[in-house]
């Protein structure tokens, strides 16, 4: 499959403000480094998709450990974190965390202040699509990155549509660069 | 809109000027006064009558918008860019635009049910007369026969004719609501939302009108928990016989087919099968009919070539039904003026001529707007055409599937078109090697939309390949469904009212709506089984009721064979078709009225306040698709009943979410003292998406919590919530400190563990109030 910066679902034509495609993982690393309060929202597909050397959730945990970013697990995926020995993830439905993040006065899960960067991974394409659209329109205080395999035009940054192999390569590269810096 | 018109009857009048005998003057109707209950505060509410109540709910459950489009294109000043705070040329912003779309969807839904009711009642009055009594279960003691209509309109309909008056009111309201969406009308998102609630309430009345009319006239089971079992599934059809397929929601033409077959002693010689809600209502009319399946079974069944004639009425019918039918040489009869399919109107032509034309193939279909004539034509066409068609089908054989699969270039356009991102290219690739198992597996989760096939540049018949590969599964598709029972009996309400309100029955779970499931209908059946086993009352309707039926346990039993059909703990209640959803709302209303003795007549706010604070009911539309589903949900929102939707429901563009972290949002009045009491996030949301079935189940268990729960009831509800979270998530809930009010609320078997959690959170005991959102209820009555 050729990498294309267009929506994965054909009819999900995006609007007037569109995501920048993440061709190099350095973009994601730089955004995380620049962020004062990043948060990762992790859907159930992060634990159900098999990549060659792990599941997306394994890379998410590494990113969280390297950056100290807060994780919010949605649906039933929290158990997958605890099974992997990662015990500082919170959990709530994607709609709940989205609702809180859109509130500029929300002080975060730990009460330490609002988040400035939201990274999403592991959702049905269309569910992430509308969630990101909500952020785009109603949360100007947030930057958003989709770490999913498919291009999400409502994010600020998103991978183009990539193969599972390329996706894993990107995730690994992000982890590697976070370790190096 | 109370009717204050006049009916004047004078036997004899003599005056100095004139002498009149036998004068009878009727101008409209006076409100029926044979009902002893005094008129409540809000008869025939207008668009703004209940606005304050709506705003109370909307201040607790604020809208969260999820724009589906960045722009608005509804007028010629547009397209207007509404991104990131911009306003359109008319001044509307994105929030208002999204809520406007929500209102539009609810109006379409309400108009559809009400239009259905209008057609149905006109037909039934023509056939049975306007004085036909309303009877939804008199023989089983139902006295509150139209709870929604009584609540909203303040009248007690006694005859079919009375329902016409109700329809006039509904049609007026829908027109006003639709007008509010015009450019330059409403501009505030909360007012749009209030109007959407109004549309939902109107929709609920429209559904009730439709269902109690057909229940009364057509001899359906009347509130019968032991309504018969009927057959469902493609495999149930005897393909050696002529087969008729009916699709849609308005049953009279299908019922006339049954009558004609009976009259001509042809019934045992012809198979009559149905898809969608006409099928539900057809088995209510005669359980010998067969249901094929939900909305998503249309294409696969038509392409199978089994139906020899197709009769469509209204709603949820594929727009390409005629084109698809043509591929298998099946004529189509369009029986509703809402859906004419471009066909010639043959209503006034002799039946024999229409039959001859359809059998010869000189015409591909006909509009026939006379249900009786549809009955005759459809039956005769099926009998005469079946031997000629010889079940001509377009589903490929395995050899053809393999050959066709080899043309696939793996471009993935089919997958990118699939609403559920099914792994179609992988399955086709495997099929090209001779292994069609993966294609057959897709049959279980495919929603039958055919977008894959439309997208294929190589014209591979993807949907037909999937169906063809699943031929063995299709033959085994034989299940039992309990015929829709209609209303809930008053005595059932008396029996369960206390345990529901006190919380001892942990909740009422309504599994309703369409079939756009993220992972197939089996998930709905799984959720029904989970809650039934836990002694919730599970009610179902429409496509969801069908999907629940289409599973079997190890002994080959379908859920409706395993669980009782009574409205009781552990019951699995199929109320019937989409319009039967009104009985679910009706049951909640009757709990407030019959059990708690709250006045019903035109007393919407008080009843909704009661339901919201006391009746632990939750709706789940796991595969919601349509505008009707939006309107149905909206009717429940106004009653204060939470609704959960599957992930596709996020495309409705708006959630109604509580914030459990903002404590002051959860204050209610204590009706005994007038003081404000914090009751925690119960119920936490009014409308929310669940991402997976596991999340949906945990969410629903939690949404059954109500401020009024007794300690015993709260303990039972928490036991289920905690148990399900541990089972599906593998962790304890993290919000118990918000949900436990007293130590006696804590489930005994987990007490030690929970007490520790509460101590760590600095938990303190709180009071259990007599909860209300209405200040006027303070000090007015003894709570129940």
If you had to describe this structure to a student in words, what would you say it looks like?
The complex is a heterodimer of chains A (181) and B (784). Chain A is α/β, with parallel strands linked by helices and 181 residues long. Chain A has a single domain, classed as TPP-binding domain (Rossmann fold). Helix content of chain A is 36%, strand content 13%. Chain A contains six helices and seven strands, in the order βαβαβαβαβαββα. In chain A, helix 1 packs across helix 6. Chain A is globular. Chain A starts with 19 loop residues before the first strand and ends with a helix. The model of chain A has no long low-confidence stretch (mean pLDDT 94). Chain B is of the alpha/beta class and 784 residues long. Helix content of chain B is 42%, strand content 13%. Chain B is built from 29 helices and 23 strands. In chain B, the strands form five sheets. Chain B has an eight-stranded mixed sheet, with helices on both faces. In chain B, helix 4 packs antiparallel against helix 5 and helix 15 packs across helix 17. Chain B is globular and about 80 Å long. Chains A and B meet through helix 3, strand 4, helix 4 and helix 5 of A and helix 13, strand 22 and helix 26 of B.
Which terms summarize this structure?
heterodimer; A: 181 residues; Rossmann fold; 7-stranded parallel beta sheet; 7 strands; globular; B: alpha/beta; 8-stranded mixed beta sheet; 29 helices; disordered N terminus
């Amino acid at each position: 499959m050729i990498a294309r910066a267009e929506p994965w679902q054909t009819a999900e034509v995006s609007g007037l403000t569109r995501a920048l495609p993440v061709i190099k993982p350095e973009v994601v690393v730089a955004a995380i480094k620049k962020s004062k309060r990043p948060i990762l929202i992790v859907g159930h597909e992060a634990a159900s998709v098999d990549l060659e050397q792990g599941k997306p959730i394994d890379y998410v945990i590494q990113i969280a450990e390297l950056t100290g970013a807060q994780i919010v697990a949605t649906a039933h995926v929290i158990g997958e974190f605890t099974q992997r020995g990662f015990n500082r993830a919170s959990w709530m439905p994607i709609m709940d965390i989205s609702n809180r993040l859109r509130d500029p006065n929300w002080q975060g899960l730990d009460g330490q202040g609002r988040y400035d960067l939201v990274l999403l991974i592991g959702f049905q394409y269309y569910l992430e699509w509308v969630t990101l659209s909500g952020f785009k329109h109603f949360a100007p205080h947030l930057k958003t990155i989709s770490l999913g395999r498919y291009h999400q035009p409502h994010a600020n940054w998103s991978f183009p549509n990539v193969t599972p192999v390329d996706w894993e390569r990107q995730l690994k590269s992000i982890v590697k660069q976070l370790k190096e810096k | 809109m109370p009717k204050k018109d006049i009916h004047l009857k004078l036997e004899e009048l003599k005056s100095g000027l004139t002498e009149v005998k036998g004068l009878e003057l009727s101008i409209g109707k006076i409100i029926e006064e044979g009902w002893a209950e005094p008129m409540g505060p809000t008869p025939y509410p207008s668009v703004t009558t209940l606005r304050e109540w709506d705003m109370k709910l909307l201040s607790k459950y604020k809208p969260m918008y999820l724009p589906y489009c960045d722009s608005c294109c509804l007028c010629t000043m547009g397209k207007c860019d509404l991104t990131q705070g911009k306003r359109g040329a008319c001044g509307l912003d994105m929030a208002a635009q999204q809520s406007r779309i929500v209102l539009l969807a609810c109006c379409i839904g309400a108009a559809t049910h009400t239009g259905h009711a209008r057609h149905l009642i006109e037909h039934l009055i023509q056939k049975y007369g306007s004085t036909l009594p309303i009877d939804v279960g008199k023989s089983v003691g139902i006295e509150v026969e139209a709870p929604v209509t009584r609540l909203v309109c303040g009248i007690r309909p006694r005859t079919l004719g009375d329902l016409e008056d109700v329809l006039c009111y509904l049609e007026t309201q829908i027109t006003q609501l639709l007008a509010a969406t015009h450019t330059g009308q409403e501009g505030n998102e909360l007012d749009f939302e209030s109007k959407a609630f109004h549309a939902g309430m109107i929709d609920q009345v429209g559904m009730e009108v439709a269902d109690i009319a057909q229940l009364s006239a057509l001899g359906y089971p009347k509130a019968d928990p032991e309504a018969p079992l009927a057959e469902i599934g493609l495999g149930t059809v005897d393909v050696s016989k002529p087969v008729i397929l009916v699709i849609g929601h308005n049953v009279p033409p299908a019922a006339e087919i049954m009558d004609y077959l009976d009259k001509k002693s042809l019934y045992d010689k012809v198979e009559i099968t149905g898809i969608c809600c006409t099928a539900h209502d057809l088995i209510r009319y005669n359980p010998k009919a067969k249901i094929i399946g939900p909305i998503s079974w249309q294409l696969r069944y038509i392409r199978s070539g089994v139906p020899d004639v197709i009769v469509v009425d209204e709603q949820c019918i594929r727009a390409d039904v005629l084109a698809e039918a043509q591929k298998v040489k099946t004529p189509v009869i369009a029986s509703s003026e809402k859906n004419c399919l471009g066909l010639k109107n043959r209503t006034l032509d002799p039946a024999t001529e229409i039959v001859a034309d359809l059998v010869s193939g000189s015409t591909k279909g006909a509009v026939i707007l006379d249900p009786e004539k549809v009955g005759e034509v459809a039956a005769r066409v099926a009998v005469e055409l079946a031997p000629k068609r010889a079940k001509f089908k377009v589903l490929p054989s395995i050899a053809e599937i393999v050959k066709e699969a080899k043309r696939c270039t793996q471009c993935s356009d089919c997958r990118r078109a699939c609403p559920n991102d099914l792994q179609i290219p992988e399955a086709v690739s495997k099929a090209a090697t001779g292994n069609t198992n993966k294609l057959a597996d897709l049959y279980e989760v495919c929603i039958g939309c055919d977008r894959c096939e439309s997208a294929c540049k190589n014209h591979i018949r993807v949907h037909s390949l999937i169906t063809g590969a699943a031929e063995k599964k299709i033959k085994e598709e034989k299940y039992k469904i309990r015929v829709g029972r209609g209303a809930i009996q008053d005595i059932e309400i008396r029996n369960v009212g206390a345990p529901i309100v006190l919380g001892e029955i942990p909740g009422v779970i309504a599994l309703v709506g369409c079939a756009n499931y993220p992972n197939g209908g089996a998930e709905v059946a799984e959720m029904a089984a989970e809650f039934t086993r836990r002694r919730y009352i599970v009610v179902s309707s429409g496509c969801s009721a069908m999907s629940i039926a289409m599973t079997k346990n190890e002994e080959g039993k379908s859920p409706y064979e395993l669980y009782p059909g009574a409205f009781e703990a552990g019951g699995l209640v199929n109320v019937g078709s989409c319009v039967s959803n009104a009985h679910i709302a009706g049951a909640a209303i009757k709990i407030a009225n019959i059990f708690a003795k709250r006045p019903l007549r035109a007393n919407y706010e008080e009843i909704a306040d009661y339901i919201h604070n006391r009746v632990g009911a939750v709706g789940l539309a796991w595969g919601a698709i349509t505008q009707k589903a939006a309107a149905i949900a909206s009717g429940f929102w106004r009653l204060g009943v939470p609704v959960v939707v599957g992930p596709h429901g996020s495309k409705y563009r708006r959630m109604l979410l509580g914030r459990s972290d903002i404590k002051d949002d959860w204050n209610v009045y204590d009706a005994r003292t007038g003081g404000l009491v914090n009751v925690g996030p119960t119920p936490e949301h009014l409308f929310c998406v669940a991402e997976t079935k596991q999340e949906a189940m945990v969410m629903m268990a939690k949404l059954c919590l109500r401020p009024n729960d007794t300690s015993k009831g709260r303990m039972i509800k928490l036991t289920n919530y905690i148990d399900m979270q541990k089972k599906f998530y593998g962790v304890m809930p993290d919000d118990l400190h918000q949900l436990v009010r007293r130590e006696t609320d804590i489930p005994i078997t987990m007490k030690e563990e929970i007490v520790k959690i509460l101590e760590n959170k600095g938990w303190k005991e709180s009071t259990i109030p007599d909860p209300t959102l209405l200040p006027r209820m303070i000090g007015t009555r003894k709570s129940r």
